[in-house]
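Minutes, project huddle
Topic: does the predicted pose make sense with manganese (II) ion bound?
PN asked that the exact inputs be recorded in the minutes so nobody has to dig through chat later. Recorded below.
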Amino acid sequence: MLKKFAEKLSAVRSATILCHMRPDGDTIGSALALSLALDSLGIENEVCCESVVPELFVNLGAGKIRNKPRLDSEAIVCVDCADEFRLGELSDYFLKSKKKTFNIDHHVSNTRYADVNYVNNCSANCQNMTRLFQEMHVEITKEMANFLMMGLLTDSGSFTHSDVNGETMRVGGVLLDAGADIDGLTYQMFRRQKKTRFLLNTRVMNKVRFFLDDRLACVIVMQSDLEAVGAKPEMTEGFVDFPLTVDGVEVSAALMEVKREQFKVSLRSKGEVNVNEVASSFGGGGHVLASGCMLFGSVEEVLDKLSFAVSRQL
Ligand SMILES: [Mn+2]
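Predicted holo structure (tokens), as shared on screen:
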């Protein structure tokens, strides 16, 4: 199946590579490595994503990603994208095009929406990309290895998630042999932050509230907290994970004041509580272990609603 995919992709003269909306390291890494692979085969290409690419990835080489396709290409290749609607604004472009379409992905839920599909459930789509390049007899350069490792580190939680297996490590080995700088990437991706984010973190972690016999922990970020240290809302990314490390805490919530009496709530669970159910009861949703919703009212009202909803799942 990968062989067929490789043969058909090698035969196109030009391609538009599409990332999913709100891109992560896996879709970006897959797309940029593929772009270089196609370059080496003399296949003209471009990489597009409907969303603004996070600064972190721009610093790691994602600056060439466009919002809209410009190339009159023969094919479209979607990477790390379970269905065409994950393309966001670009799903229209995909659905209306008469081009030959390709889909290479690792999600179990993938709907095989393209003309040519390669879906293999594994830790990260960059794993599939690595095997694809080998199948296409493309040499994996150091630059490509770094993009692929970026995806692997992102989706495997730096090789710590439960779906990591021997094959994940073997692909990791291929990329290290090709020159991937795992140390440098880890630093850039996970070990550095702006001083304002650090100050915001220490400030809000000082005020974490515990409920339900310490089984629910809530981080609360008010607009006034952001103003006090000069931080931006997106800097709260990852805050919700920290209280979950506390022994006994089953659910961690991060409440972000969007405006007066409106909070964006992120939820994480250790496993006992299905936070998708909690979020759904407020019109939100997500996954069993990670989800989100919007809540309205004063902080105390929102905390009340939330702890009641969690208590019903405990
Ligand atoms: Mn992925």
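Observations noted during the meeting:
- The two ends are 44 Å apart (CA to CA).
- The domain at 2-190 is CATH 3.90.1640.10 (inorganic pyrophosphatase (n-terminal core)).
No decisions taken; revisit at the next huddle.
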